[in-house]
Task: inverse folding
């Protein structure tokens, strides 16, 4: 798992995916980054460790 906040890499780690309602969830709430002015954009890239597969999601939070 790679987490970027406003384009800057803030975390790289291995995490366990948990099956939930037919989908897999990965909890990255322990990744912390100081709040910045305006909206915060997080880009999370998950890569399987046991074979091919990768997905990237962008999450935007506005105050």
Result:
């Amino acid at each position: 798992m790679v987490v970027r906040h406003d384009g800057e890499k803030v975390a790289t780690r291995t995490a366990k995916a948990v099956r939930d309602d037919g989908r897999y969830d990965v909890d990255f709430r322990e990744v912390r980054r100081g709040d910045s002015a305006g909206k915060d954009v997080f880009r999370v890239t998950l890569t399987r460790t046991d074979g091919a597969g990768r997905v990237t999601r962008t999450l935007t939070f506005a105050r």
The mean pLDDT is 82. The chain has one domain: 2-61.
